[in-house]
Amino acid sequence: MTFAEPPRTRTDMVRLTDPGDAVPEDTVVRDDLRRTPPRLPPWLGYDAVGSRLFEQITELPTYYLTRVERGLLEHHAPEIAAALGCGRIAELGSGSAKKTRLLLEDCVHLRPTTYLPIDVDEGMLRSSAATLRSGLDGLAVTGLWGRYEAGLEWLRTHPGEPLAVVFLGSSFGNATREERDGLTGEIARCLRPGESFLVSADLDKSGEALETCYNDPPGHSAFADFRLNYLTRLNDRYGADFVLDDFVPEAWYDPDTSTVEGRLLARADRTVHVPGLGVTLDLPQGRFINVGYSVKFDERGLADEVGAHGFTPRAQWVDSRAGYGLFLFRREET
Question: Domain boundaries in the chain?
Answer without folding.
Answer: 10-20+57-205+297-331
